[in-house]
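Write out a record, fold above all:
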Amino acid sequence: MTDYPFGSFGPEHLKKIAPGIHAFNSQKYWECHEELEDVWLEDRNDPARNVYWAIIQVAASMVHFREDKLIGTEGMLNKAKNKFKRCRDQKFILTDLVFDYLDWIELEDLVMGIPNTDTSLEDYKKIFEFRFKKYPYKKGQE
């Protein structure tokens, strides 16, 4: 069994975010934001919350995308990029669980592949279609 020291994304984090991940996968981005924000606030002193924060901001960006609001979509995604960078810079946060169950590399590549400025709503379509395919908890199992 792998040991997950404080600040690293561990099994308890993976389970806590289940309602948010289910909402994201159902394209209920506002609900995802709300579910994950509760966990993010609860884990105030835990650096692993940056994983939640990145997903929260991607979800918020998709709320704006759905409403055809380019400035909001672009702004929130740029904030999400900072969280992905923070997770990478603080090397202890990202663990095998993030990579194995949150399709992190795929999501990070989609997010980081969007230019910071001069985008169009079409640029965000692949993120809107993204799903956490490998997430281990089924709805109601969390």
Remarks:
- Helices lie at 11-16, 18-25, 29-42, 49-66, 70-89, 96-101, 104-112, 125-129.
- DSSP finds eight helices and no strands in the chain.
- The chain has a mean pLDDT of 95.
